[in-house]
Amino acid sequence: MLTTRFVPGAPNWLDLGTPDVKAAAAFYSGVFGWSFEPAGPYSGDYGFLRHEGKTVAAMGPLTEEGARPAWTTYFATPDADATAQLVERHDGRVRAAPSEVFTRGRLALFTDPAGAEFGVWQAGDLVGLDLVTEPGSLGWLELHVADPEAVLPFYQAVFGWRAEAVPMGPVTYTVLSTGESEDTSFGGLVELMGDEGPHWRPYVEVSDCDGTVSMTQQLGGTVVVPAESVQGVGRFATLADPFGARFSVITSSPDLRQGLVGSPPPDPPLAFDAWPCGSFGPLRGRLHGSSLSALWRLHAGSMAVLWRFPAGSPPFGGADGGSSPPCGCEERPRHARSRCTSPTGRLHANDPPPQPRPRARRRHRGAGDA
To answer: Is there a contact between 368 and 6 (Cβ–Cβ < 8 Å)?
Structure first.
């Protein structure tokens, strides 16, 4: 999951390029309650977006010729110059060479071989965002490209990321993490669909997804993907601000949030079923390792989640309590894995029981923690 412990390769900054900083600040203030604070007299209208006094993003005017309004994700690096060399060596492009930002740090902007833009931030006085994962802040990232498998080696070479790919029929969803431990997942890699070009998409955690969608429309934004819900995960939507910059929002369910930061739940029995396919991106990380499993399926430009349920639980409200496949797949022996061929695309499987491991209670760690 995302934290403010910015190890190399972890997302540590997020900013918006917009043609009208003042109007965009008013929009995001109404949608998320963010306040805009100019970075200083020599910042060129660049400034910080704060939520309850904590920096959650930044914003400034478009500076590149032909640039369109968009959110840019930055990843932590101990050496921006070395990262720039790696980007070029592995067929990426340096759009803005590493440069000093006063005493705050060093910044560079790149384009990956698939065409998605991103940046790196080498910390100086400014380490990174003050708040992530909580309502009003960044909760998850997704990279959308035409060929996920082709671009993955680039990011692994540049940042050393670990990738866990789960095949789901003809497609694969890849969970990205910094590789430091099991719980450092921060984003996903999916096949590009729809009318957008290659891009990194941020997900902002919100307290009320429907209220956020409504406020977005009232303030001149648009709905790209309408809000929908997945039991045990939350309600989410993809939106665009009045200038066309796209972002996603999610109201995570209490169960998901408890699974991320609370004590691990007991290991469930073997049987598990699939939720109906739906567009969903930000399941933030692997949930308590061995006790739960998450599989991913691309759908409508994002994914649906398959979750392990205790036997007898009714995720589908079936007569048998939901412990048998909703699609009618025949039961297979333990250790055998079957793939459903029904029109719904749902899967059913049985697998060996995981070995439980003691897990320490986690909390969000701030940059000022010891």
So the answer is: no
> Which of 81-85, 347-351, 352-356 ranks highest by mean pLDDT?
81-85
Please state the rounded mean pLDDT for residues 263-285. Answer: 34
84/272 Cα distance (integer angstroms): 45
Whole-prediction pTM value?
0.71
Instruction: Enumerate the β-bridge partners of residue 71.
Output: 16
22: left (phi over 0), alpha (psi -120 to 50) or beta: alpha
> How far apart are the C-alpha atoms of 51 and 42, rounded to whole Å?
23
Between the two ends of the chain, the Cα-to-Cα distance in Å is 19
> Is the pLDDT reported for residue 223 higher than 90?
yes
